[in-house]
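Morning run. Coffee first, then this:
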Amino acid sequence: MDSSFGPLDAIAFVVFAVLIAAAMIIIVSLGQLPGRLARKWEHPHAAAINVAGWVGIATGGVLWPLALIWAFLPFSAPASAAPREDRNERRAGDIDADANPQGSLHPFPASREARS
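And here it is:
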């Protein structure tokens, strides 16, 4: 039996190394994908989506599809996320601030003391 390292063995070794490198690049790219999409679209849970993507890859792809779906889910910004000047602007249909000095959405005063 010949145990020498020939040119075909070298080519096989290079091909195997390239395949391993390509697999690692694909795994890293897939692990980053949900987090990158969430950050690109300014998702409020971008950090959690990023972690779920990496944990999903580390567990053999169990959580990765969920992280990808989570990154694609629509979200709405909470009212407190709006800039202060936008929150204080009056819009059509708003309750008149002079008629309701307490600032609540209810059109009537909260207590009897507020009526007098």
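The helical segments are 7-40, 46-58, 64-72, 84-88, 112-115. Good start to the day.
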